[in-house]
Design a protein that fits this description.
Blueprint: H1 4-9, E1 14-15, E2 37-38, H2 40-43, E3 52-60, H3 65-78, E4 84-90, E5 95-98, H4 104-107, H5 110-116, E6 119-122, E7 130-132, E8 136-144, H6 150-165, E9 170-171, E10 177-179, E11 183-186, E12 188-192, E13 196-204, H7 209-215, E14 223-226, H8 239-242, H9 248-261, E15 273-274, E16 282-284, H10 294-302, H11 304-307, E17 314-321, E18 326-334, E19 337-344, E20 349-351, E21 357-360, H12 373-382, E22 386-388, H13 391-399
Parallel strand pairs: 3-4, 3-15, 3-16, 5-6
Antiparallel strand pairs: 1-2, 4-8, 5-7, 8-13, 9-10, 10-11, 12-13, 14-17, 17-18, 18-19, 19-21, 20-22
Helix pairs in contact: 3-10, 6-9
This protein binds ligand LAQ.
The ligand Nc1ncnc2c1ncn2[C@@H]1O[C@H](COP(=O)(O)OC(=O)CCCC[C@@H]2CCSS2)[C@@H](O)[C@H]1O binds next to strand 7, strand 8, strand 11, strand 12 and strand 13.
InterPro entries: aa-tRNA-synth_II/BPL/LPL, BPL_LPL_catalytic, LipoylTrfase_LipoateP_Ligase
GO cellular component, one term: mitochondrion
Pfam family, one: LplA-B_cat
């Protein structure tokens, strides 16, 4: 029996290729779409009974953020990592990935992202919003919860950069990897379940910095009140700027090999030993054929209900200069849907005989919130005549 795949999923199979024979070759050289396909049982020798821990490096063949998040989720839910730890390396086409408890309208200009073709995704782990493109490497470390250690994993990454390229990254308080005391090269988040866990992090190799900045710009017109997790912006640097030898291929190979040779066992793993069974990295095709049910998970990650509907409830306002002062339109949004709308008129301005705060019943009620919801309310208001109160009107309004 090969490792956990059998015990957990009966049918997960992997296209498996040895991608680095000898030390000189590029990580991905020799890998073709039609590389020999084999089940894990064909690749890995049968494990001997007892407490043996082995490790694998998987590389996702997909660049679709929703597919990769689904793959991660599938592995987390279906594998048993007790005697097999896995590192998954994955990259995405341009996207912003917000944390599980975040508000996308706080974090980014949602409409701008859409116009630029940058996807917006929500992950299952907590923390802030990060930008991905193929120059960003995502590294997921899967272990049983009992062996979960962010520090151990980040040490592997730091050690790789030290040994291979003479860099001295440090792990700061929030477990970012930073260089020169301030420049972030990696952000971290994690998910812990009853028995399984993963810690995942980014590595900025050579992302389009201008796109990173532009994709994390906010919509300055929206004023949002919410309890959602806020991101912690930091100055960032690409590893390729620190050492020209750091290419994506070279980094993936170095990180993968450092992972394979690092002992994950701890003092509490009495009677265990770590064995090396895998001779190379395994290319993973995250398709329905290999991971039954993955398409449904992918569709859930891509759905409006998950990306926007999961936003913690919030209050969002826009201010309008109407000549006599600032008018404010406010909406309460729950599960991404507009629950109620009110307008706050500036002092001394009336709408008919109404002043101050006015509850509105509008066509946006119970609809999905978008910044364009404000345009609809604005339009509806424009059909009403606002006027400045004369002192007589003020007295009347006060009596009403
Ligand atoms: N790709 C990437 N890597 C590192 N730092 C980034 C990146 N993109 C943006 N940033 C910077 O980090 C802050 C947000 O930092 P903050 O600390 O708020 O959030 C994080 O770091 C979350 C990391 C999540 C990692 C997951 C791994 C797989 S899927 S995403 C942002 O405002 C930018 O200044």
């Amino acid at each position: 029996m090969a490792f956990a795949i059998q015990s957990a999923s009966k049918c997960a199979k992997f296209t498996s290729v040895l991608v680095r024979q000898g030390s000189g070759g590029s990580l991905l050289s020799g890998v073709t779409k039609h590389a020999a396909m084999a089940t894990s049982a064909d690749v890995l020798p049968p494990s001997t009974p007892g407490k043996e821990l082995s490790k694998s490096v998987f590389i996702s063949q997909s660049r679709d953020v929703f597919t990769n998040l689904a793959l991660e989720d599938w592995m987390y839910k279906n594998f048993d990592f007790t005697d097999h730890h896995i590192m998954l390396l994955w990259r995405n086409d341009p996207c912003v990935v917000v944390g599980r408890h975040q508000n996308p309208w706080v974090e980014v200009d949602v409409d701008l992202l859409e116009r630029k073709g940058v996807k917006l995704a929500r992950r299952n782990s907590g923390g802030g919003s990060v930008y991905h493109d193929p120059g960003n490497l995502n590294v997921s470390f899967f272990t049983p919860k009992a062996r979960y250690s962010r520090k151990h994993n980040l040490d592997i990454l730091a050690k790789t950069l030290e040994k291979e390229w003479n860099l001295s990254p440090e792990i700061n308080k929030k477990e970012d990897l930073i260089v020169d005391k301030q420049y972030k090269i990696s952000g971290t988040a994690s998910r812990l379940g009853r028995s399984n866990s993963y810690h995942h992090c980014t590595l900025l190799v050579n992302v389009e910095k201008a796109n990173l900045r532009a994709s994390l710009l906010k919509n300055e017109h929206l004023h949002i009140n919410s309890t959602a997790t806020a991101s912690v912006p930091s100055p960032t640097v690409n590893l390729s700027e620190l050492h020209p030898g750091i290419t994506m291929d070279a980094l993936m190979a170095a990180v993968g090999w450092q992972y394979m040779k690092t002992d994950d066992l701890t003092k509490s793993d009495k009677g265990w030993r770590q064995v090396q069974k895998q001779k190379g990295f395994q290319m993973v095709n995250p398709s329905e054929e290999w991971f039954p049910g993955i398409q449904k998970i992918r569709d859930e990650f891509a759905s409006w209900e998950w990306r926007y509907g999961k936003t913690p409830k919030f209050e969002v306002s826009r201010n309008y200069d109407i000549g006599w002062g600032l008018m404010q339109i406010t909406m309460n949004v729950e599960s991404g849907l507009v629950k109620d709308v009110h307008v706050e008129l500036p002092e001394g301005v009336a709408w008919g005989r109404m002043t101050g705060r006015i509850e509105l019943s509008t066509s946006v009620a119970n609809q999905r919130f978008t910044p364009a919801s404000f345009l609809l309310v604005e339009k509806a208001l424009k059909t009403q005549k606002l006027h400045s109160l004369h002192s007589d009107d003020r007295r009347q309004a006060a009596r009403a």
